[in-house]
Design brief:
33% helix, 2 helices, alpha+beta, 3-stranded antiparallel β-sheet, elongated
Length: 85
């Protein structure tokens, strides 16, 4: 069993109005050292697979078919083996 941790973010060329609004609000709250904010999404999933490579392949397919809009978003996948105690 493996745990996939997926981070989906807007591509740098895509405007991020939610990130812009959050940056403005943080600046108003006194966080003047923050120069930029981008908002994304974080997804965790447990995958039953025979290997790390097989788990990664399933996670990548899930991202390309549903979880990430490949026109506007990039994704990064981290896979860890779940060790039962």
């Amino acid at each position: 069993m493996f745990k996939a941790r997926i981070t989906v973010t807007l591509r740098p060329s895509i405007l991020d109005p939610q990130g812009k609004a959050s940056h403005h609000a943080l600046t108003e709250l006194g966080f003047t050292s923050i120069s930029s904010v981008r908002i994304g999404k974080f997804i965790e999933m447990d995958i039953a697979a025979g290997s790390v490579d097989a788990a990664r392949a399933q996670a990548e397919e899930a991202c390309t078919k549903l979880l990430a809009n490949q026109v506007m978003e990039d994704f990064h996948i981290d896979i860890d083996e779940i060790v039962s105690t």
